[in-house]
Amino acid sequence: MADTSPQSSSVPIRSELDDRTKPIPKGHPATIADRVKEDLAEDEVDDILQMENVYSPITIRSQLIENMDDELTSVPVTHGDAQSEVFGDRLETENGAPRTPGVHRESAPEEVGDADENHVEDAPEEAVAEKSPRVDDDEDLESEDDDTNEEEETDEEEETDEAATEDELEERFSDEEEASDHEDEEPKLKYQRLGGTLSETLKKDAVSAMAVSDRFLALGTHWGAVHILDIMGTDVKRFQSHSATVTSLSIDTGGEYVASASVDGKVVISSLYSQEVQKFNYQRPVKAVALEPDYSRKNTRQFISGGMAEYLLQSGKGWFGNKDIVISSGEGPIYNVKWRATFVAWANEAGVKIYDIASQQKFAYIDRPPNSPRADLFRCNLVWKSDVELLIGWADNVKLCVIKERSKMDIASGLPSKYVEIVCQFRTDFVVSGLAPLGDDIVLLSFMTNLAELRNVDVLEQNATKRSKAQPPEIRVVDSHGATIANDVLSLLGFEHYQANDYQLEYLPGTNPSEATFYVVSPKDIVVAKPRDVSDHIEWLVDRKRYEEALRIAEAAGPNYEGRLQVNSILDIGQKYMATLMGEGRYDEVAATCPKILRTDQALWEEWVAKFNVAGQLRKLFPYLPVQNPQLENTTYKLVLTQLLKVDVKMFLETIRSWPSDIYDASALVHEVENAMETEGPAVRYLQEAAKELHMHARRYDRALFYGLLLRAADVLDFVKEHNLYSFVQDHAILIMEYDDYCLNSSPEIANEIAMAIAGTGDTELRDIGEDIELGKTRAATRMPGVQLLISHPDHILATQVVPHLAPHRKFLHIFLDALFKLDAQASAQFHHLQISLYADFDPPRLIDFLRLSPAYSVQTAYSICQKRDLVPEMVFLLGKMGDNRTALNLIISRLGDVKRAIEFAKEQNDDELWEDLLKYSMDKPSFIVGLLENLGGYINPIRAVERIPEGLEIPGLKKALIKIMNDIGIQMELREGCEKILISDTAELLDTLYRAQRRGMLLDPDVTCATCHTGFDYADDTTLVTFFCTHVYHLQCLTSSVAAPAINSPAIDASSTTSLQRRTDKAVRLIYHRPSLSTSGLASNIQLEQVTHSIRDVAEVAIRLKKRDGLFCPLCRSNKDKSTARDGGLARKRRGKRIG
User: Fold this and answer.
1) pLDDT in tens, 5-28
2) Torsion from C-alpha of 789, 791, 795, 796, nearest 10 degrees
3) Is the pLDDT of residue 209 over 90?
4) Which has the higher per-residue pLDDT, 116 or 111?
5) 256, 252, 267, 207: which is closest to 233 by C-alpha?
6) Cα dist. 816→592, 713, 774, 812, 1093 in Å?
């Protein structure tokens, strides 16, 4: 039955379009135009009749009210017929006239069901209550008396008006009495309008169906859409499942699937967490759908649906696809279906029936009460209170049915195993638009109308008069006998235009009745109702001045109770109690009581602050002083803080850190703090921290940075970047350097690094400091965050502005300029003249490096500074830079006595005279002679130094020095010979490879032809063949004639050419490998030389034989004029020739 193809359905189906075009028979529901035009002017009826063929009935109604205001935030409510409004969760009651509905009770329990009802097919034969007799409009007209004269009519109207006046007076007095009775009755529910994006969702659409779960809400609209909302009303997902009004929604217990039914004849089951969508087309409007419990966890995937086709179908997966089982048919349209556990309840024209899925039997039939309105006029509301309890609300009738087990004897007699007993029932004087359980009570959504006019109506009049505006719906809480416990009137948006079937009451059960949630649904509005809690109950008592009872209940609620008591009389009582405690000197108890009594009253809080100030006990009150809700005057907070500053500076600091900064004037308060700093003492640090916090609150970040630097606060330099305080840093560079110095001396990491550098372990930048700890700290200071901040922002912090501030502190100036020099030597060039003396004072080992790298200083001035401090290495460097090399060399020899440095200096200058001076100065110094011999290396000839040694001079270590010189020369010779051998070997190998490549033969196919004459070759005669490396073969005659070049007469090589080639080859080899200085041992062996020579000669001979002569070239490959011929030759080459080697 659920096949998407219309032809596959086996159930007789009528077209909904055909029903529209046929005349309305007697007893058939009236068209939407008949219902709506009662609310319209005559000129609007034609438009609505045209809309009837396009939109569903409720959609037309939504079009009439789509421009109404849907942005209201409060729900007007009348409780106990006394007008009130709900704002959020608070109910404020006003005076009004009560109205109590009449309730017709039928409380006697009765058993529903027939002993003969054993099978589904027996259902139509059950005993059903008589239907209401139908009234024809013509009969009503005929019953009037046409002979009545005008005078009699006038008298009757006057009598009627007098009677009506008396009835109204009696009703008014009765209402006033009932209103006084209802004043002491506490409401059962509290209301709040559903917010979120609901108003935006319903601007151009209207709600037609709703289902709820504990995780989300599902709304069906008249435009065929299904909206998924969160609990707050925010639209999180949308399905455009249908093309017409959604009539019913069902959510599985797992909250993973939503099923929707529509008047377009389709049932759509959509997954909320995947792309799975199942569609079933029944061709006729579907009025109800229900998913089986745990639909998402079962493989059967069953659901039940029904509608205008008059079939109740159980659909699910079968062996060969989806299968449909007809549970009920032929009893009129299906109006509602609810599935709980294994029981399915549905409503049709006859009444309500219950079906057991497990036993596949219908076991109960609940008939509609006699004299009820027509079945299709009002929706039948079904709600499962539990697995075996069913609430039924249809028109003006309410029933509570309980499913019970039959005795074994009855089952043996053939009766169903279960039956239904109606434990309570009653009738109302209003239409039940929805119902839900609330513990042992029942919540009814009532629509007030004149039921007497509808009890015997079959067909609405075609030319009905304009209907009066509808009354707002009411929420009634009744007991099991129908007695009203509470009554609230809801003024929903657009209620004047809605009828009973436009409202719904959805129920979401909780773990206990107090946690249940009710959703009152109208096309353009949704109101959430919940049972009132303890806070609501206490507020209700306070409103009635039952303070003692309210306080007792609040204490019983526990210490965590936070009520909303805001009544002056309660505050007065609390203040009297607090005054008593204060008179007894119990200031701590008074302060602790203030939040409970004063709550959010700003004026009272300020009054009690003044009282504590007079008593000198503000210190005890301030921990409880509110900083928001309510927020007191700034002067009040300043008063408290000023007193704290005088008595307890530490608590003052903690308070301004915990309080919001906008509740007091930080700018005014910081002056008092700074004035208090003038008196030195242990509290100065607390005052500085307080000043820093207050400047931060006042957005004076430069002053906050100032105090942060004084306090050596961690991460205080982050303020500079966050608040662009570079100008402040530039003008307070000394504070930055002092902050770095503090961090440097207190850093265990830097201390550990210096210790490792002194011990000679680890690879750090401080490894050459020796044992000088201060030198290590000076070098490490250049990496500190403060100095890095000063040098890393040249666009904001100018070195020319920083240097004057640091000039009085030479060490800080050195650290700054040293870091700047490392970062950018060019940027610090203008200060290099200052750095010479700074390096000389604070980091002498690095002065020589600075002098080598910097070009921006006076050499003479630098020499003077170094001469005053007796820095010999630096003086040597500067003398060399000035060109006085002899004086520099004399300093090295006389002052330093470092022969290696002297040799390095001579190498740097690259001057023979300087070498001569070095040899001359060293000849009378044996240690220098040995040093020269050991370190000269390849710079000068060692013989030159040996020859200058005076005869008879005793030189310790001379023998070892000479041996070292000879060893070094021997090593050099061996390296040179090894390189020559490798070179000769590689040359011979490459020449041999070239020779073999040139001598490779060509493999020719026997059927090869001449590329010119295209004739074959006779290998028996003495025909000369010419083969090129491109594998083209020619007759010698063809080749020479085609290119007009002389032929080769003989392959022999001219003897003179060969002799000349040999001579040139020998000369080339000799020039390459001959070393005059190595004539005895450096020349390669004659055998290797001869091998190379012979290889070169062989290659030369081959080259001469293969040397091109004029005319001996391949015409096909040489010529580019005939591309096609060359291409053909290339193909022939690939096909005929192959190189071999």
Assistant:
1) 333 333 333 333 333 333 333 333
2) 40
3) yes
4) 111
5) 207
6) 57, 21, 16, 6, 71
